[in-house]
Amino acid sequence: MPDLKQPNTRHRHRPIQRRRHWCCTFSPPMSPDSFPPSRSISSSSRGKKTVEGLFSSPQSQQQLRPPLARRILSPGRVSPISDHPVAATQEMHQNLTRTKSPIAPPDPQISALKPTALRDFDVRLNARGKNGESLVLELGSKVLAANSPIFGELIASKANNSCGLCRIEVADVENLNVFRETIELMFEDDIQKKLQKLGVFRSINILEVSAGIKFCRGVTACLRYLDAVPWTEEEEEKLRVSFSKFTFEDDESTGILDRLASHEVANSQHTLTKNLICSVISSSDIHARNEIKSLVKGLLGKSSVYEKNYPDLNNDIIEACKLSVASLTDHLIEIYGSGDASGSKKGKDRPLQGYISKRIEDIIWLLDILLDHQMAEEFVDLWSSQQELLKIHKSLSPMVRYELSRVSASLFIAIGDRKLHCRSESRLRLFQTWFEPMLYDFSWLQRCKKGLDIETLEESIGQVLLTLPLNEQYALFMEWFHCLSKISSNCPNLSKAFQIWWRRSLLRGLDSTLPPRS
Predict the structure, then answer these.
(1) How many other CB atoms sit within 10 Å of the CB of residue 167?
(2) What value does the mean pLDDT of the chain take?
(3) For a surface tag, which of 27, 92, 335, 458 has the fewest beta carbons within 10 Å of its beta carbon?
């Protein structure tokens, strides 16, 4: 019985070639198979014009085009050639390895083109990348010369070869895709519309290449597009680098430069810091104050780039601290002079307790920023010198005056946690001024903690007290012991530090091996 199995009649169909053009004057692209073998590109072509390092552009972070492992030799098309091409089909291999004849036979597709179309593509541009890849473009000399004076000079200095092509080579191209896109824009009527599809990051790369080849129309279009769109921080930094490498004389660059930098950087930063701090201090809404405090502290924090660009941040914050302390002192002096310590200022427009609490919060907030930068030593001297506040403190009610001890408590904790390093004289003045008020306000600090860790405060006071000279420790520990004997439950627990001082000063005595004091 005959075999009824049908032969395999499936055929592989070649993919349909799609048209792609740069401008309306280009002819349809032709198949690589139909191109004459004599038009294939040889790496040993004579008379090439080489341009070294003219068109280097930063490596774009955008996704690259398909692999550059194909060869297209039709006029007006791009021909990327890889030094390590992938394996081609058998038919393509035969076409590429065919013996080259001195005179190629006429191709039917080329013969069908208009004579003017062939004459327009009379330049073969070979761009070689730093990674070993190459890119071949067959272009028109009129378009290149009209858009780039550099290419115009190269074309004018090179006579056409026997094939009617002017061969130019560009070496050390950083990004072949960006270079190709820049050349394509020379054939676009509306470059800015094309840039909208490419995006900001690639437009910056094209701007650099256009500036390198003096493609003025491309530079102007890129500057207009970049000036009209918002930037991300990464795009802004990249654009800043580009403007540091190239000088753009176009009027469109003025708007971009104004966005990148201020003409008076130092004054603007100095004014900005003061305005931000004043906005926080003058805010009357509690929720708004908390939000902007968090925002401004993040901007002025140690991890922010603001510190690198503005080293005088400490002076501005110290000035703000002085203003806050002076405003608090003036207000309390006015209340103390009126003889109504529990009243309110200017006809009870603002309660005394609320006003003091607001000012203390501002001072502690500024102190936290200084501690973050490890620049709070000057504030210790500032707070220790407030003798007028110390006098007023005794006349205020406990519910109001304990707010002042909150600042002292913050300093004690910072020194005890080793976040604040100051001299022994500064620590001693701090204890001599605010240690006694702290002892009598401690009961209110326990009731209204406001984020204060009482155990940490007690341990920090003891540790800092032990850093003072032994003679000063004796006076301060005796003061604490008398307070403990009167109000034991409302006095800070310094028993551990007291025992250490007792062993050091009494049981062990002075070490005889120490040199005598001069």
Answers:
(1) 18
(2) 74
(3) 92
Tokens of 486: 């009167």
Instruction: Judge contact between 423 and 380, C-beta under 8 A.
Output: no
Q: Is 127 exposed, middle or buried (0-12, 13-18, 19+ CB in 10 A)?
A: buried
Give the Cβ contact number of residue 133 at 10 Å.
18
Q: Which tens digit of pLDDT belongs to each residue from 112-143?
A: 233 334 446 788 888 988 888 899 988 888 89
Which residues 6+ apart lie within 8 Å of 19 measured at CB?
A: 28, 29
User: What's the gap between Cα 274 and its chain centre?
Assistant: 23
* Spatial distance between the Cα atoms of 43 and 413, rounded to a whole number of angstroms: 75
What does the pLDDT look like over 383-400, one tens digit per residue?
999 998 888 888 888 888
3-state secondary structure of 447: helix
Number of H helices, E strands in the chain: 23, 7
Give the residues across from 345 on adjacent strands: 350
Residues 6 or more apart whose CB falls under 8 angstroms from that of 295 comprise none
Please name which of 239, 373, 389 lies closest in space to residue 316, comparing C-alpha atoms. Answer: 373
Q: How many CA atoms lie within 13 A of 276 on its CB side?
A: 20
By three-state DSSP, how is residue 129 classified?
Answer: strand
What order do you get walking across the sheet with 49-52 strand by strand?
49-52, 166-173, 123-129, 134-139, 78-81
Average pLDDT over residues 239-246: 92
User: Which residues lie closer than 8 Å to 29 by C-beta, 6 or more apart?
Assistant: 17, 19, 20, 21, 72, 74, 76, 77
Chain mean position to CA 483: 54
| Separation of alpha carbons 155 and 150, rounded Å | 9
The better pLDDT of the pair 66, 516 is held by 516
How far from 119 is each of 44, 49, 101, 167, CA to CA, in Å? 24, 21, 22, 15
3-state secondary structure of 303: coil
Query: In 327-446, at which residue ranges do the beta strands (DSSP E only) sit?
Result: 344-345, 350-351
